């Protein structure tokens, strides 16, 4: 018996650059005898409630609110109204334009134009803009159907970066709302050598000409020298053309763009189908200029817009490294790029001849000021919702997210900005793409939101404070130094809130000449419940006292900021009108500032009236509204609110006291209670020891608006009026709840207010983070942590802590971290992260530190995590909350006694979000590879692994596997000389760069994450967004052209990271340089693949230099075969033919070709393409597991949107995850893509009893595109007959004698088990079929119409309501554009998993360890790759040996056996034989299979075969080859 160890896992082995030696793992099974901490410590959310549960919005301010939440469009770039409809058009980067209703409730899209098959979408490229002809939709006009589109188009071949910039006209046929893709007329087709600076923004000006913006062709520093040329190609300018070709005011094109050397077979650039306006500024009858130019000198005029009222055109010009700018468009102007950038010098010298008139921007902002980096121009606001914005130009910055409003000063010619709000975090491909507009003229800020996710649409709003806390003004706070007794002589002219020192009351005081006549006096003599004494009140007199300052102005009190919106409320106050004070006129004793609308019952001027007013009625006419009759002198209450449901204004008037009972000299103790549930406002008066009701009004709906509350005066038409003549006040309280009389001020029961923290503490000492601020000893429940590879912070020393909410035991989901081995962790609401910074300030004595700041990141209940910064006082006694960013120069004592200053940047809250952005998961440091290291814990003095310690505390959920700890990645400090240069550099850029440089982040083309393998990162010879000829991310052996090293070593405008870096990390710079110099000067390679395919497809293979030796078998290909390889030098095209539908992967391993120096190539990144049936119209696997989108995995990307569903509706499914529908009308909505012929299939699981009916509309709708009445529609529903809960399928025919045709299944589907359902339909014959679990159960003849009456398809529920909605689970929803055969349906019903066998195996054996999952990796170092472990039944994390027993019989035959996977195997096996170890032949045709024996576990079997050698064979070697299938 012989055994052979000769195995091969695939057709190729992995190159040395990607061997497991490059991974940093902890290879001990248990690192320490015990964890570093003894146990958890209880701590409440938000540091025991010391921080707000949502980010502070105390005064009410601008913010953005999401709208169109049910619209699912990936990478939206532009939004505009569709003329003549109530629909909006959304341009998607992918090359598709969508239509949807301009309604927040819109839940379905239609396709206006689909050019995905011809749109080049790499990097910034794609479809960019759309504009309608001014005569669009006008009957009889020849232009009535014209729409103009800009996009990038690319023929096959090329280097993966070059393409054509196109401006084309399309036609919308009469009677339709979609453009005809076959109607394209190309106006400009221009070869473009780069992927960036395309702009494409367009508008028709008031002159009827089309204005088009285009950037400088891309590259750094105007790489292609387009910026100042007007005679070569149409770049770097705004063009003006006459698409109507009216020769009375324009003339023919005189000059064509210059032709450049292009890939073989690519067409020429050209312009056509328009004329040149006769008054364009750069005309040349000799055809020396490209006369289309209207203005020049732009780098990337990304967005521009015309304002008809001012006749100004604003341009948002995105800068390179120095400034962002806004300009006003002028005819013949030159905006200076590339010799000007904003208001400063640009990267190049001015040209010898400057065309046009040089024009400076009207506004600019420096990148160095941070964090702005990419201005996106909007438009001048002329909407109605926000009058304060009228006439202002709106912009947003793609990097910072800041939304600004600009005013233009005609005198100075400059614009000034106001920052309104911030967009949700994220930049470039996860930032804001544009400022769209709805039909009402309101701005819609579009957040691209990253690839493979739905874009988000945001509108501006002004909201009240996030929460409303009760306040109680007792007036017991006359300051010791206030000898005058006037409130204006108190500190800050204020009297405090006695509940929580919250919102204060203040008086007017100009500190010189005038102040309010409001002074402290004796109290009302009553002690409120729970209060020991009552000493003081205030007396408010109007007019002033006549004695000069203080007290010589009208008396009043008003809150220092807006009080929040109220629904239920209680307002209490005590007041006494003094003698002779009620003689006449209006007097407001308490009011809420603001204006309101007119209510139906009003006989007053509604808009001028304030929302709340308790006042002496001062009108001689008998009434102010139709519900109460008032007389001059009555005490009157009016509360006015807007019904949130209807928008109607509601007025609740109450006569509190008749004028005969409302007299001077006595106290009135009132409690006013508003209660939404009863719809009432009730007034109580305390008199003779008890409260009695004195008035009540009905119709109250809540929504008492946010505003400033006043005591002693009112407001009318927005102006303070109705001051009291003379009154004393005491005990004023406003509660955010409807109190009962037993809880009022003077009742027996003391009310215990609940205070919601709305503002962060002003001092660090008030946060509760530290029990001893001097030593920074953390409080109970606040634990330290450290990171293996820290972010560089200008040499600052840092300490870190985390407070994870728990009650003493981490035994619930709200007390645990969502662990991920190689991704972002998720943290419970209320978690607080703390980081403290100190700077060494004496080079001769490094332990001397200056405390700088302590930062907090808080996980809120809603919205994004927010950051706060506390700046330490000079004496180190405490730290104060910073309201915004700050710069400080700090003196550093040098070793020789000299000094220098170092700038320190304190971040603003916006700065925090630039790095702590949503695309990076918000929380940057705490993750597996950073905390997989030792820390010495002060609490115990023990040193232990942090992951082990946190796991022992119970902090992690079940995703943490202690048995895998030794396989978790571990990043390394840049100073760790025991680690390789590669490990140190990759760890460093992960910490310093990956928050932005990752998929969906900034547009730099590399992935800085440590968990991404080097070959996938795009670092070595990686392309730049704006390269020079030789620059790349990393150029082996070349420091000057390795832009990562150059930018890291800079503190200038090109510095990286761009924020808060003022000192170069010299040690890291040296290590980065050493690594670059250690790399071989080998060629790099980039593979460019299509986004999807339906059959054979091409892969562009681009090398960094000409190479030799490339053959088709050099490529690692899974799921396809190589059909051809063409090309030479540095550019090749590989053609792949897929084996089947599914995912195809392709890569080029290291060392397969040679460059000029003889070095083998670096490995390429692996690329994948999903190959789908070309008739597959939609495939929603429902594997997202969270969120509100059901993503379509077909090339059509017709995504679904979850409506009315909760997070808990995502459940484990038949394969992956699924959705559970509760029968309440929950559903998934999507565009109805069903055509004439179709198949709809899905998995369902239910126990629901369906309605007894033969009519699907009366049953339980599972899939529906039903329409009212006889219609061309269809439905799949659950119905019941004869006790069988079955599936029914209906098709409709609007004009047929039988409106509906129905077929019914025969088997029960409500078994509680997964059941596969499929229906097919052939339009020509009307044939309908229904399959259950692959078996045909019914067929019939139905409608032959196109079933498109309803443009929206829903599954899981019925939009008509809960009564006919499905209750159960659904998974794997598919729509094919043909009727599948019975065999194909049966195959679908037998699908085994949503994952390929190898992917299933990886999920079981290497869960979350993506960096170990490559087919040719060998994590355990036993010489057997992952795929071999999979194919032959091994363990990738344990040493294995796979014996192949062999036995040679006397007749010379050989019997051998081997282990293989059972079907579906995921591998193809071959027995190979050779007479030496160099040449192998497949022996399969000469084998006789003897047996297959199942092995324990059911996934593997042992196969025994017999081989008869050829005559004369003296020695033989055997091996088993397994290849991926």
UniProtKB/TrEMBL annotation:
Domain of life: Bacteria
Pfam families reported in the protein's UniProt record: Big_12 (PF19078), GSDH (PF07995), Laminin_G_3 (PF13385)
Signal peptide annotation: 1-33
Residue ranges occupied by any Laminin G domain in the UniProt entry: 1217-1399
Keyword list, A-Z: Disulfide bond, Signal
Entries under PROSITE patterns matching the protein: LAM_G_DOMAIN (PS50025)
PANTHER family the record matches: HEDGEHOG-INTERACTING PROTEIN, HIPL1 PROTEIN
Name of the protein this chain belongs to: Laminin G domain-containing protein
Organism: Luteolibacter luteus
Organism classification: Bacteria, Pseudomonadati, Verrucomicrobiota, Verrucomicrobiia, Verrucomicrobiales
